[in-house]
């Protein structure tokens, strides 16, 4: 079983999330050019020095791209050690990918606020992709662990890694599809009951498409 989160790890996670949320809020209020690391740190209740322990720039803080990009250990353990078999692998992986790639927050409005920033400052989108790519590397390692626990065999380590990466990328489709739905119709978030509901709709379509393949 995964080790229980230490107080130090919990404090670091909460501080990182607080800085992430403070960066988004400050930039929405003051604009990207006027928002400063000092004000973001103050809003989060930490020092500027502490800010730089987590993020190199305010842009990194906005998208959550830090030196310690990681996937929650409990989330990864539950995915890798799931008792489910191959029949739910795609669905399980799609859910794992979604949870791993999204920045955790107690604020349910955070994703919508982040999307507003990306619309206002398109230059931040590349930063977001950088974060997603780093997380995808970590996610792929866990996907490979799941495949091996299911008894999958590979001709080489390279083949194993490429297979796990392909599955990870394939199972990002429901998340990407949900994002496109929200982008095309932002009102859908409220109409359908939140981003989770939109993702579930995309995941349902994903399963249907896979079931219809020969």
Give your account of this protein's structure:
- The structure is a single chain.
- This protein is an all-alpha fold and 214 residues long.
- The chain has helices spanning 7-30, 37-44, 48-54, 58-63, 73-80, 89-101, 110-120, 123-149, 157-170, 173-184, 188-191, 195-212.
- Helix 1 (7-30) crosses helix 7 (110-120) and helix 6 (89-101) runs antiparallel to helix 8 (123-149).
- The longest helix is centred in the middle third of the chain and has 27 residues, at 123-149.
- Pfam families: TetR_N.
- Residues 36-55 bind DNA.
> What's the helical proportion of residues?
over 70%
Strand content: under 5%
Helix count equals: 12
**Assembly annotation:** single chain
Question: What separation lies between the terminal Cα atoms?
Answer: 38 Å
User: Sheet bearing the most strands, described?
Assistant: none
Structural class: mainly alpha
Helix-strand string: HHHHHHHHHHHH
